[in-house]
Every structure is written in C-alpha cells, then in structure tokens.
Amino acid sequence: MIGEIFTVTFITGLIGATLRMSTPIILATLGEIITERSGVLNLGIEGTMLFGAAIGFLTTLATGNLWLGVLMAALAGMLLALLMSVLAVYLGLSQHVSGLGITLFASGLSMFIYRLVVGSPTIPPTVTPFTPVAIPLLSKIPLIGPSFFNQYALTYITWILIPLVSIFLFKTRGGLRVRTVGQNPFAADTVGVNVNLTRTLCVVVGGAFFGVAGAFLTLAQQNMFLMDVIGGRGWIAIAMTIFGNWNPLAGAGGALIFGFLDAFQLRMQSLGVNLPFHVFLMIPYLVTILALIGVSGKASVPAGLLKPYRREEKGG
Amino acid sequence: MISMNIVKRKPLPHWVRIVIPFAAVVITLLLAAIPILFAGGNLGKAYSSLFYGALGNRFNLLETFVKSSPLILTGLAVAFAFRARFWNIGAEGQLFAGAIMAAVIGIYFPGLPPYILVPFIMVSGFLAGGLWAAVPAFLKTKWKVDDVVTTLLLNYVMIHLMGSLLFGPLQAPGSSWPRSSAIADAAHYPMLIARSRFHIGIPLAFALVLIIWFINSKTVFGYQSKGVGINIRAAAFGGINTNMVILKTALISGGLAGLAGVGEVCAIQYHLLMDISPGYGYTGIVIAMLGNLHPIGVALAAFFFSIINVGAQTMSRMAGVPVYISGVIEGVALMVMLIFLLLSEYKIRWKRS
Amino acid sequence: MREVTKRFLDVVANDSVTLELFPGEVVALLGENGAGKTTLMNVLFGYYQLDGGKLLVRGKETVFSSPKDAIESGIAMIHQHFTLVPSQTVLENVMIGVEESFFLNMAKARKKLLRIEEQFGLYLDPDAYVWTLAIGEKQKLEILKALYREAEILIMDEPTAVLAPTETKELFETLKTLVARGKSIIFISHHLQEVMEISDRVIVLRNGRNVAERKTSETAIPELASLMVGRELLERLEHGESSPGEPVLEVADLHAKNSRGIKAVDGVSFQVREGEVLGVAGVSGNGQTELSEILFGQIVPERGSMKILGKEVPVGSSKAVIKSGVARIPEDRISTGLFMDLSVKENMILESHVSEPISRNGLLNKQEIESFALSCVKSFQVKTDGIEAPVKSLSGGNLQKVILARELVGDPKVVVACQPTRGLDVGAMEYVHQVMLDERSKGAGVLLISDDLDEIFLLSDRIIVMYQGKIMGETDIEHADRDKIGLWMSGVAS
Lengths: 316, 353, 494
Fold this sequence. Notes:
heterotrimer; C: 3 domains; 6-stranded mixed β-sheet; 23 strands
C-alpha cells in the first residue's frame, strides 16, 4: 500500500503542490514581515487578501487579462492598507482593533462588490486561470524539474521576492530605517527619519503583497471567487511571521511547512486514504502556538510593535 | 505641506460619552448610503425596507430579537474580556466549543427530562467555552504569549476539531455531510412565544447583561478586573492576584461565548453543523467596541446589528442591494466608533508650513 | 533663541526664554524639575514646534519643523533616555539617517566612525550590539552619533543623572576635548557642583522663564541655588530628638536580578527601627528600584528574608506586605501607584478593597468607600474636584498626596518611600518631607530611598549607600560627611 502511494509521480506532484499552495502564504507572510518590522501589526490581512482575491478575479473576469487582475489586486490591497495606516499610524488607534475592523469591512465589501457585479447566478462564474510555466531545460531535470520548475509565474516571483525582501531589510538604507522605526521610533525620529511615513509605506507595500496573495488564490490556484477562499491563510501568515522570528527566510520556511501539510492531506484525500484531514489542518496552528511560547520574551519582537507614535505627548 | 498633530484634549463631560455611540450609528448609516447608491438602490426605499424588515411587524421584530441573542452573548464575552485587557479575539472558537458540548450532551443523554437536560447543557456549554478561553489566558499569564494571536489561532484549531468530529464520531449515520444527528427533544430550549423562535435564551441573554453590569460595577472582582485592564502594574502593586483575575475573566468571557453556541444548537439548528455561526464571535468584537465595553451599550449595539442583519434581507429583496451590505455597515460602524472615541480624548490639529 | 514660548494645552512650559550660545563654550542650563529645560531644548532640536519667538542659527532666522532640520544645521541632542536600538550594532546605530547610499556601505561608515573615534578619543567596537554596552558606553555612542553627523552644537539633557561619579569624570574629560575642538555644548542639569565644574556660563530657568545669567567664574553655588529655587535652599527641618526603638523592618541577605537578568541587589541587609528615618543613598540604577520592589512585594528575590514588626513575611507578595501594614510610596506613581483613568475614590481603595468594611462577601460597599475616600482627601488636603474626579486631572503634587493619603491613613508602623519627591515642585516637596517626619515622630520607622543626596541629608537619622546592589557603607547623620558618602556612591570603600 505504502509503496503504491509513494511513487515518483506522487512525490513530484506533492512537491509541486507544496510550492503552489505555499505561494500565497509566503507572499502574505513577506508582506506582514515588512509591515511588522516597521512596528505595525496588520490584522486586516485576512480581509485585505479577500479583497485582493475579489478585485483581481472581477478585473480578470471583465477584461480577460490575468496580469491586469494581479495589478488591480495589488492596488486594492494598497488601498485598504492605506486605510489601515490612517487609522493605526496617523490616528494612532489600537492596531488590533483597527486591523480587525479592516478585515470585517473588507470581507463585507468584497462580497458586496462581487454580488453587485455578478449577481447571484446558480453556477459561479469562472476565469481561465494562470497556467504553469515550464522553464526550458530546468524543467526537464528528472524529479526536480517537474516539481520545481513547472510552476505559476507568480510562484517564481514569490521565490525571488524572499531574498529580495531579506536584502532590503538587512542590507539597504531603507531596511535599516524600517527596522529602527519598528524597534525605537523615537530614536528614528531624532535622527530625522519620518516615523509615520516610513510605517505607512511599509503597511502599503505589505497591503500590495496581501492583495496579490489573495489574487493568486482566485486566478491561479482556483479559477473562481468563493466567500471562504482565503480560509484563514491571512492568520496563518501572521503566525508564520512570529514563527519565523520576523525573518523573511524563516517565515517562508514556515509557510512552506504549512503548504506541505495542506498539499499532503489533499493528496491523501483524493487518493481516498481515510485520514482525519482536519487533524492535519490543525497542526500548523498548534505548532505556531508552541512557537509563540518558545519566542515569548525574546528580543527579536519589534519593540515598537503595537505602539502608535506621537510626538507631542508630554512636556519635559 | 500640511502636517497633522494629535493633541490631548481636556476631559469631555460625561454625557458626551453616552452620545458618542449614537452619533457613530448615524454617521455610519450616512456613510453606508454610498455603497447603497452605488448599487443603484433608492435610499429611502433601502432604509425603510431595512427597518421594516427588522422591526415592522410581529414576526420581523421577534426574529430580530432571536438574532440579537447570540450577538449579545458574544458582544458581552468580548467586552468583559477587553475590559481586563484580555484580548479575546477567540469568541468564535469558544462559541463552537459550547455548540459542540451542547450537541454531544443533546445527542448522548436523550433520556433526561428537559428541566435537567437544558440547564445541564447550559452549564456544560458555558464551561466548555470558558475552558477553551482559559487556554490562551493561561499562556498569557504563564509565558506572556500574545493573547490576540493565540485566541485567533485557537479559533481555527477549534474549527478543525469540530470538522474532525463532524466527519468522524459525531457525523449523522448515513450522512455524507459534516452534520450531526439531531439532539433530543428534551434538549431543545423552551419557546416562550407561540408561532415564533422566541426562546428562553433571549431573556437569558438580557439577564446576563444585567448580571455582568452588576459584576462590573458592584463587586470586588469587577473592580479588580477593571484595575487589571487599566494598569496591571498598579493592580499587582495593590495586592491583586492579576493572573487569577485574567484567568477568571477568560473563563467568564469564554463561557458567555459558549452559551451563544449552546443557543444556536438548542434553539435554532437542533444539529451541529460546520456553519453554525456566521462569524458571531468576530461580530462580537465590533459590538463590544461599539458598546464602549459597557454591558448596556453591548445590548444596544447587538440589537442594532441584529436590525441591520435581519433588515438587510428585506432590503436586498426590496431595493436590490446585496445582503452583504450588512457586513460593510458593521465594518464602517467599528471604524467610525474608533475615530469618535479618539476624538473624545484627542484633538487633531492641522498645520500648514 | 529669542523669546521662545511653548505651550502644552494651557500649560506654558517656556515663556519668552532667550538663550545664546557661542562657539567653543559650555553653557549650563540650570533649573529644577519642571522648569522647562528639556522642553526648551526639544524646541531647539526641532522636536517641538515653537508657539512664539525666534530661532537664530549663525545669525540667520531658522525654522525647524523636525529634528532633521536641526541635524542639518549641526545641532545634535543627547536625550536623558538614550535613543538607541539595543538589537542593532554600534555602527548601525551611528549610521541610521545618514546612510548616503541605497545599499548600506558598511565599510565606508566603519572607516568614518573609526576616524572619529580616533580623533576624539572615544573608543567603541563598531560591531558590538548595543544591548551589551554599559551605560557609560551607551552615552559615548550617543556622542559618537552626534559627531558622525558633524554636529557643532551638542545638547546634553542631564547626562550625569545615570552615571557614577567616575563615569561623570570621564564624560567631563570628553566634553573638554570636544570644546577644545571648537564644538559648543548646552549642558542641562540641576546639579550645582557639576555646573560649576564644566560650564563657562550658566543660564537659570524657573517656571519656564529666564531668571538669571551668570559667568560661571563670577558666581558660586549658594547664589545659583537660590536663583534656581527662588529662595534659599531647603533648611534641614526640625527633627526632634531621635529616639529609635525596636526594629520594625528587618531584611537579611536580599539578592535579586533586574528585568534583564542582571544582578541588581546583592546581599542587602538592614534594619529600620521605630521612630527613625533610614536613608538609602546612591546613584540611580544601583539596585534601589529593585530593592524597593522587593520591599513592596512586587518582585520575588532570589534569596533573602524580610521581617515586619518582628514577624516573618513571605517575600514576593504584595498582598502579604499590605496585610502587615506597611505604607508603600512607589518610585513611579503614574505607572505603579495609580490607576490614572480611574477616579480618586477608586484609587483610594486600591489596597483596602478586599477588606471590611470597604467590601463584604465580594461586594463593594458604596457608602463606606465614599466616606473613606472623603476622609483621605480631607486629611491630606488633596486638591480635586471631588472623589469622583479622575486622578489624571490632578497635578503631580496632588497625585502624590492621593498615594500618601491611601498609604498613611491607618497610622502605619513602617513606611517605605522610594523617590517620594521626584518630579514635584518645591511646595509639594516640602509637604512630602513634612509628612515623612510626622510619621517618624508618630513612631513609625521610615525607609527613604532617594537619589537626591540633599533629601537624604535633610530627613535621615541614619544613611546607607548602595552601589551595584551592595551596601557600601553606613553612617549616622551626626558623622555623615558628603565626601565620604560621595566615595561610597562611586564604589570606593573607605
């Protein structure tokens, strides 16, 4: 039985699916890492992803252009992120509550706009989704080729973004400023870094990541928009941010584990193996909670996280 | 360039704090006109059908009460927790915990008489929700693990736990859907008004509003939990066992959410199913904020949301506005309320330079 | 700076203040807590915008809308609380804000930093993480940060407050080097001795106004002191004969770590007897805070025991300490002592809300609470709009009175006060001092922890000095000598 399941085809398929399914989570995690590194926890992630999924899908449905859908999803995410930034950065409202407010608002808005555009047909409309792009030569390598180099373009882009985000954060002027703003906004202000502007930029860039992550689900992984298309992946990204210690490489690693578990249980289901697949889906959440216990009290949590920054608070 | 400064203002008179939520509701309804107009709806028709659909006749009004009961309970749950700065985002999961407990007892103890079975289910459901909430509270007090994230994650653990039960031991025999068998008739909440779904859980929810108000304002525990919320350091300095206060707060908070789940199983669905809650736990957060964390405020906010939810169905039919407008209104209401609360303590100063 | 005015809500923090600074000089800005020194400097640094007056840099009128503008004009400020990122390296902390290129050029920055270190004799490892640095080193880093930005004017806000005397000496050497190379320094302090030692000119602020300007060489400590407080310094209050009785508070061999896991209290033992004030002196940050937290029951010591009125009290329990009747005046009244968002009434019952008659069977008794709060407000003359007013509407002195009332109303036999007059104006300070002495004459044993040496001398019958968590020495007031105590404070046993 085991031998029948773990064939070469199965393994390449599993690896391929893992990379595919982890793509939106990696994207969202990268966005959240940039956001949190600047000192903002964006719990609007789940709603922002749904909004990106809806806008991306509807754009493509209307125009037939997949990349235009991705672009609009990014813009949609940035728009909501801007709202988040007005509430949580400029007005200094509780980041928790603002973020949840964005999620609620965006969820309602996504469904509202979707229904407004498509009405309530019995069969949900679909688009022709992205197709995997086989990279010449590389995709011919046995085992590795079909699994690693026959993916969606967005998946390749995501994998390129992982080191790029890491380089940005740790090797560039902007990254140093972002980290300083997240760790000690007062210090950043005293050396002339505009704290709230830096935070806003990070939140907005993060929003673009969330939007595209959502669109990946409706334009690549699936070809339609459903109310529960995000299914908690935003919260998973929050968890992976912590799990990865606010480090892009480690965060992506965590997302990959999640993608693997998800892909594995789906394959098992489709093979008719009677696994309690819900138990599988529970694992990443439990692991993250354990990781949270592990990192509690460690220094890598951006010290300025959750704290709004206002200059004229008190007199000296 | 124009720059913005936020400056503390002098404390406003008490009545302003009471007026704020009502003003927020008005502003929200004004803002909600934008998507309604965008959807091609006629504003007058939309809002009149909204309110008629929620309050216009006996059936609609009773239905609004029915829908308000889980919202009151989750709203109270969140408000009670937030007051002590236990950031319980997990009312949804705690609601599921209560619902699962209700289904298990309702299915496996069919022989008990209703006057024993119903209270037994209520107490067990309360405990199930409470203990589920106590997990993140324990992690918070023991290892300082961020409660926002843990309560959020535990929702998904509970959803998948429920999923594995509904695809496993609790699945109704012969069913291929994730749905349990029906609970025993003796486990049904008694109905109080004929030809309606007005069940005993509704006055119970309102009674709990008063009980929580009493706990908050008249008891030592209410003083302590408020103190822990306002300044945990000072509370500890004053000899308050802050960890114990947080744990007890979580227990009560989760218990209230659990009761909401019990109500859905024992008075509405009579089965356990995956979509037993359309997000009552999350809506509870908005309700708690809109009610300014005060129990009476929570009851009013929950009733308002219930009007929106029930009325949106009618509005959708009559004015052609998608029913999801209710979600938009809820989100807008929260943000408007947040901004109003900010403005009650701070002034915004614009500067041109 | 000409006639600079700065308001917060309706509080005027600076009222037409004028300050001039010439190249190569050290100007001391002298004033009590709350005199408006820090606010004035934050205006100069572009952190606050001025509400009136003018700012002239090198003769040209300038408007600073943010610190960035100030930095570009060659002004740097070294804040009392360092503006460093502990999780980053020295080099990263130095180069932030002036990185020059999109990709960080570490090699170039390192070279520049090392050159500056060489030039000014301030040596730090560029790759050390800031959290590993000692306080004195962090201050060096702040100075390096300013020099890296080619600052010509350095504002130093109470730089010695956190330093031990030896570190202060080192800092003064550095400052002299800086001035010799043409830099100008504004030195904010309320320590007269230091001002005399380092400055060329002194500008005295009081209640947000200029009161005087003197050449340092033409003035002396007594004159500056009276200018600063507006009258002669506080006299030693009438003490009455000290007749200490039985020990009321005894601690033995206390050991504790601070929140960062570093040893903070290292084998402290002492006794406080009834009818005496025991003063604990020391440079702040030498374990006094942690000692008070042990005595208050806020933290659990690693080791050690505590006896109150001869009875063993479990350590690490606020509840137990409260129950044994100790009055506790915490160091930070806003973050530890009070619920700022609650009413006066609710703050008064913080420690008594679990005991009868304030509450019974878990229910609060409204009448009892109100009459208790009213009597507290009355006997300590708390200025408030009634017991329902939120405490955040009270002034600093009245906040302290709320705490004093709550703690002292039951005639305690033991009083532990940590920095009880920090941040208070002179009137409130004298009130607190009088209350402490009243408690003493009523027979209580008072433990006074303070980093204000004048206060220690004013009130104590006996003095112990803490240095790096240890008691360096003990003396009674008759034999106390400032020089000896100063040596103990810097860790020199004698």
